[in-house]
Amino acid sequence: MTEQRWFDDNRVNWDQRTAVHLTSTAYPVEEFVADPGRISPTVAYDRVDLGDVAGLRAVHLQCHVGTDTISLARLGARVTGVDLSPASVAAGTELAARTGDDCDFVAANVYDAVDALCTAGHEPGSFDLVYTGGGALCWLPDIAAWARVVAELLAPGGLLHVRDFHPLALSLADQRPDGLLVVEYPYFEVAEPQTWEDGVSYVAGSADAPPITATRNHQWNHGIAETITAVMDAGLQLTLIREDHTSGWAFHPDAMVEAPGLDHEYQFADRPERVPCTFTLQARKI
């Protein structure tokens, strides 16, 4: 199977996930319309590490339906969201039109983001912030190529911010009856993806949500050192790397509980110190 076919499968799968997610309480778009001060839990968590983003020109790669993109705009950034899924981009565009927040959206594969943003009137090398939220990097086959795109988008001194699922957590087998955590899938980047045939998404839609019939999707893992090396090789200077035992998504729902004192964060109920669930990385363009 060719790389383009992988992207085609993922695009159609995410178009259909979008229709489901827009009916889900996990993406409360109507609450964003009703409450101009609402910030997504993802951006709220990242806010301490991001610092003041007011006035920054930002691009949000793999933005999905735009709730995190709009949240960055509500913190004062001027944001452009980029996503592979035209349905996601249409949803984000509609939501921003309804909320009046300062952001726009472009449909493009991440690897084509530079040209797509240029076509949309955004100058490459002009962004102060490249932002990527949780569950994004696993949809990319080549972490080094992604890092080169990030470097080309950033202005000198610009910041890359990533908080994503830890590759160790993504290598674990699905929930087992015996409760054991077992490494089943590749930790390191490999050429061929893990291919899934799955008619459900990571959040449930409403009872009348349309079914996901384009079930095939493809994912890749990238080791922590691979990701750091890719960022550094692209000409960025690492300024932060942190591993956390919590995640904004309970990827093992039967084994994870809400983390004490943290909003919308989850950890393993049994000895959460065993497994890093997420990592945060920041780097600046030299």
Topology:
Blueprint: H1 3-21, H2 29-34, H3 41-50, E1 57-61, H4 67-74, E2 78-83, H5 86-99, E3 103-107, H6 113-119, E4 127-132, H7 143-153, E5 154-165, H8 167-170, E6 194-197, E7 216-219, H9 224-233, E8 236-244, E9 256-258, E10 266-268, E11 278-285
Parallel strand pairs: 1-2, 1-4, 2-3, 4-5
Antiparallel strand pairs: 5-11, 6-7, 8-11, 9-10
How would you describe this structure to a colleague?
The protein is α/β, with parallel strands linked by helices. It has one domain: 3-Layer(aba) Sandwich (Rossmann fold), CATH 3.40.50.150. The protein has helices spanning 3-21, 29-34, 41-50, 67-74, 86-99, 113-119, 143-153, 167-170, 224-233; strands at residues 57-61, 78-83, 103-107, 127-132, 154-165, 194-197, 216-219, 236-244, 256-258, 266-268, 278-285. The strands form three sheets. Strands 3-2-1-4-5-11-8 form a seven-stranded mixed β-sheet, with helices on both faces. A two-stranded antiparallel ribbon has the order 6-7. Strand 4 (127-132), helix 7 (143-153) and strand 5 form a beta-alpha-beta unit. The relative contact order is 0.16.
Share of helical residues: 25-40%
Structural class: alpha/beta
User: Could you spell the SSE succession in H and E letters?
Assistant: HHHEHEHEHEHEHEEHEEEE
**Major sheet strand order:** 3-2-1-4-5-11-8
User: What's the count of strands?
Assistant: 11
Mean of residue pLDDT? 95
User: How would a textbook summarize the main sheet?
Assistant: 7 strands, mixed
Poorly predicted runs of 5 or more residues: none
DSSP strand content: 15-25%
CATH topology: Rossmann fold
Instruction: Please state the second-level CATH architecture.
Output: 3-Layer(aba) Sandwich
CATH class: Alpha Beta
The CATH fourth-level homologous superfamily: Vaccinia Virus protein VP39
Task: List the quaternary state of the chains.
Answer: single chain
